[in-house]
Amino acid sequence: MRIEPVKRRSGLQKSIFSKYFSVTASLVIASIVILGAIFLIFAAQYFKEDKYTLLQDNTRRAALVLEESYREENILRGDLTVSYLRLLSQTINANLFLTDSVGQTLYCTEKSPCIHTGNHVPAAILKQLDRLGEYSELGKMGGMYTDRFYTVGVPVSMDGARLGYVFASVHGSMEQQGFLTEMLKMFLISAVAVLAVTFIAVYFISVQLVKPLRQMSAAAQKFGRGELDTRLEVDSFDEIGQLAMAMNNMAQSLSTLEVSRRSFVANISHELKTPMTSISGFIDGILDGTIPPEKQTYYLTIVSEETKRLSRLVKSMLNLSRIEAGEMPINLSKLNLVDVICQTVFTFEQQIEKKNLTILGLDREKVMVEADPDLIHQVIYNLTENAVKFVNENGVIEFGIEERGDVTWVQVKNSGEGLSKEELPKIFDRFYKTDKSRGLDKNGVGLGLYIVRSVVNLHGGEILVNSVKGEYVEFVFSIPHRHPHPKPLPKFKKNS
Questions:
Q1: 409 falls in which pLDDT band (50, 70, 90)?
Q2: Domain identity same for 161 and 269
């Protein structure tokens, strides 16, 4: 039954890995494509500028050679000139042609049939040459070409006389396409190498990034199986490291809650089992005649006490569950703490007279607070009941009330054996009973003080316990008036 959820989680892990890897790879590929497009644009621009520069430099050099050749041979188209132009054409991979002063082609390095032979260079181009001393364009040269050519022209002159013109031209699209093709091949080879290295790096990086998530998933599965002692290794303080620490803290909290739950269930089971066993045993003894008639009243009294104990336990558990669930409403109203204490003391009048106890601190007239009357009555009742149970014979129970600013402090103190230092931190725990209480209070359930603390906290107060072994036990709790934080514990006057 657990195989399917595990498969789903594994599929989720693979999905996260594949998504991260695919997104990263897509970004890398997109970046390379954009970079390639930008590279080709700049390469084309570079080719154009470089081609113009190449044609201009060599055309000017050819014009100088032609001028020198004319000065020596007195002819523009000589053998030396033809040889030089042919060699230069092969060197720069461009077509060169020579014209006279009116634009008639005298010589062309292009193999026959030559499109320049029999054609005149347009007059507008010659005028530009005469005016600017240079001509360059990427076009059809005034209709001489059917395609676009890179063309550069310069005049050939001697002593101010125009001898002719020399031109250099290269087919624009074919030449550029060839250059860009070579550049693209180089770029693609480099891109493939970069992609291969990048994909390998991204793969291993993705594995390392997803690895903590997989560990967290495995840990979460263990948590689900109840293995709450599992902990994640935290080797960073980034978001993933913080998540790992949060999961460890969660596991610790769950472990604590689980221990508390098991202890709670065990205590409840014990508290329910003991009276139920007694009730069942005594009832069975009465029914089968094991217990004689003259003793039945005694054992029925025990059954009645155990039944009341069960009722108190159930009531305490209901109140406790309501408090912990946040369902215990607080109905605030004005109440006199002195009246509440006096009424509670009268409730225990028989026990007080039986132990011959002295009650102190009931001489106050009125101390008004704003709190829930029923809940505060339960707090004082539980503390008074605890004091009456554990006070020594002929002992003293002392009540105290003191107002300090925005807080009212209430004291319930009884003489007696007191509590040890080891017992004090545990006194407010659920189902905690001291060894002494097990002997003196067999009907207790160990929830009274826990409920007291919960109710006091609901009112925004706090409760403290002080004790000196062999002398006294003192409980002090606060009721804030307006502010949730209580003031420091006051010093109550000691009664002799």
A1: very high
A2: no
